[in-house]
């Protein structure tokens, strides 16, 4: 150390963490930074692992925000829910930008370690499936890859029996003067909600007079904003996949790009998209 080097301890920076909680302790960095175990010598496998692990961490936050938003809406606390939904969009914006890092991996580089992945695939991500279920995309067939894992199956099954975020929004709208169809309010929440004309007409009332339904209008637009970012995530995924593996079958056993393209058709809040056409 030269005499010009600045020493933060002179202004009181703590340096003894033998018996104090440090940065790494609080953030459990030993666990997180000790969890990268490439199975090959390929340079890009570290990128692949970290890209997935960071995505799973952001998904963890997304689940935290989405579940809290749903609880808040069910309890008529719309303002906090708005904040959480705004954060959801920012999380997905972050995830959308992250694809740019993964895209630096070429097909030749991926081929060097792809065989090490065996039959594992993002298709088996329990957090991703939980997010889809929370949002109302409830394809029961997606439980199958988790049959071997009792805890995950229990978690996903519990989610299926809980009203989705959109179910809670429609119930809230009904409590606040919009007449939602009784069949929709009493629907079997285990299934995916499909387009309903009565729900469309209810949203039409809001969109034709935002000033008299400001709270529901803002909430609906938060959902549309989020679905917009979520669609972009799906699109970035399928485009990256085509760029890296072309039309090969996926390690998870699906057709690959053909499967992911089908998923681009999923609509989480169909009436909120359709209402635009009738205004
Ligand atoms: C080179 C990079 C990637 C390739 C080649 C790839 C490929 C695929 C393929 C082919 C599928 C269809 C299932 C299968 O048969 O395997 C799939 C699904 C999936 N992937 Fe990726 N993926 C990549 C990166 C990522 C990343 C970074 C994530 C973030 C966690 C991710 C998450 C998922 C999820 C959640 C699914 C299931 C989608 C659904 O069911 O709608 N993938 N991926
Ligand atoms: N399905 C990919 C493999 C893959 O991407 C993957 C494998 C293990 C863990 C996460 C993965 N990411 C997304 O599917 C493939 O077919 O190459």
From TrEMBL:
Cited InterPro entries: Trp/Indoleamine_2_3_dOase-like, Trp_2-3-dOase_bac, Trp_2_3_dOase
Catalyzed chemical reaction(s): L-tryptophan + O2 = N-formyl-L-kynurenine
Mitochondrion found in the keyword field: no
GO molecular function, one term: heme binding
Enzyme Commission (EC) number: 1.13.11.11
Binding site for substrate: 48-52, 110, 114, 251
Cofactor binding notes: Binds 1 heme group per subunit.
Keywords in alphabetical order: Dioxygenase, Heme, Iron, Metal-binding, Oxidoreductase, Tryptophan catabolism
Required cofactor names: heme
Pfam families: Trp_dioxygenase
Pathway: Amino-acid degradation; L-tryptophan degradation via kynurenine pathway; L-kynurenine from L-tryptophan: step 1/2
Coiled coil: none
GO biological process: L-tryptophan catabolic process to acetyl-CoA; L-tryptophan catabolic process to kynurenine
Keyword Ion transport: no
SUPFAM superfamilies given in the database record: Indolic compounds 2,3-dioxygenase-like
Record-stated family: Belongs to the tryptophan 2,3-dioxygenase family.
Quaternary structure note: Homotetramer.
Protein name according to UniProt: Tryptophan 2,3-dioxygenase
Organism whose genome encodes this protein: Bradyrhizobium ottawaense
Gene (name only): kynA
């Amino acid at each position: 150390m030269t005499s010009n080097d600045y020493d933060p301890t002179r202004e009181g920076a703590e340096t003894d963490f033998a018996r104090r909680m440090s940065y790494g302790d609080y953030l459990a960095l030993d666990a997180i930074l000790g969890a990268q175990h490439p199975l090959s010598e390929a340079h890009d496998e570290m990128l692949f692992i970290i890209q997935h692990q960071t995505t799973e961490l952001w998904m963890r936050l997304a689940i935290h925000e989405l579940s809290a938003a749903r609880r808040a809406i069910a309890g008529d606390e719309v303002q906090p829910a708005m904040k959480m939904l705004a954060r959801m969009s920012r999380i997905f914006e972050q995830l959308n930008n992250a694809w740019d890092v993964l895209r630096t991996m070429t097909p030749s580089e991926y081929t060097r370690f792809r065989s090490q992945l065996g039959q594992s695939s993002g298709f088996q991500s329990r957090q991703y499936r939980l997010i889809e279920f929370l949002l109302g995309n409830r394809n029961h067939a997606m439980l199958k890859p988790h049959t071997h894992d009792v805890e995950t199956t229990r978690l996903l099954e519990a989610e299926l029996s809980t009203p989705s975020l959109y179910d809670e929004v429609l119930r809230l709208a009904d409590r606040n003067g919009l007449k939602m169809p009784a069949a929709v309010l009493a629907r079997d929440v285990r299934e995916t909600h499909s387009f309903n004309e009565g729900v469309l007409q209810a949203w039409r009332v809001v969109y034709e007079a935002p000033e008299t339904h400001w709270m529901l209008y803002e909430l609906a637009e938060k959902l549309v904003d989020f679905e917009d970012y979520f669609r972009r995530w799906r699109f970035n995924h399928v485009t990256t996949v085509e760029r890296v593996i072309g039309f090969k079958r996926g390690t998870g056993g699906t057709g690959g790009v053909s499967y992911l393209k089908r998923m681009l058709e999923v609509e989480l809040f169909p009436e909120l998209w359709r209402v635009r056409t009738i205004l």
